[in-house]
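Pilot study result, target chain (380 residues):
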Amino acid sequence: MKLAIVSETFPPEVNGVAMTFGHIARELGRRVHEVTVWRPSRRDLPPVGNGGEFAEIPVPGVPIPGYSLLRLGLPAWRRFRRRWQDQRPDLVHVVTEGPLGASAVTAAQGLGLPVTSSFHTNFHTYARHYGVAPLRRLALGWLRRVHNRTHRTFAPTAELCTELGAMGFSNLAVLSRGIDTGHFHPSRRSVELRQTWGAAPDDPVVIHVGRMAVEKNYDLLFRTYAAMRSAQPRLRFVLAGEGPLQRQLTKAHPECVFAGFFSREEIGRYYASADIYIHASLTETFGNVLTEAMASGLAVAGFDYAAARQFVRNGENGLTVPPDQPEALTAAAACLATDPGLRERLRTAAYITVSEQSWDKVIVRFEEDLLSVVAAHRAA
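Predicted structure:
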């Protein structure tokens, strides 16, 4: 299969969407498919070698206002059409719904190419976090229009497929998430790294990995951290990542360790060197960070939805609470801070739970789905 992947975020950027499709592109390339990735150019970040499994075509993009870590790809209809007329792909897969992705859908349709898409980010729910709630309906309409012009839309969970179907999205399928247990594994724990955080061997460390942006619910996260530290004064809080809130949070919480931005390889050492992961966000479509934390052997607590609903069995391999009960999350986190026996039991069970969630199984299913779209298009 000749596959064109179009995404406005891709490694070396570090986020769930970029890393998911970085892995998918590599694995499909290793399975002898001819994969070409179209993405906004990033000369400001160090390049990441892909081992020759896929080709990359950089296209113009601009920084997203207020969040320069991510870029918005500009429409590229003409460039897509010229390339795809001469080197016709069997299928186009659009990862993101911005101007670049939408123009890829239009170009593919104009050339009679089958096109599929992914739903990764609840942009329509972000509106209320950024003070533009009236734009929610407009954002939802845009997302629905982009996806419903494709032959199939992949979402990370069956739960989200059901929600999207109720909102008028069609032709939905599941593209789950795998875990790279080479990068995320308890064996990557580092005593030396813990010492740089000021943590003694028996001091519990909470880590949070992700974009420092308002939709990630940092208000609740820091309220929860305060309750944990009140219950266990030796507890340390480490945050890895960057984003619009970084300067504000660093100034407001000098007692915390703000580790900054790390490569995918290095961040696994940070996860494994901590003890607890608290997932306070309610806007994720999946939440790769939760399964990465579990694979790294951390005791996790989060709201019962997305990845937590799929993988966490409350009280057995982690703690979950109803999404409308933030105070319950704080209480669960305090239990993890003060009960070392509970932490150790959950940590062991968490790793066992996700150790079988291999990328290989996910890739095989996705490959079969894409090939079925290609076959149906040829038969039509």
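One observation from the pilot: The first helix runs from residue 16 to 30. A full batch analysis is planned for the follow-on phase.
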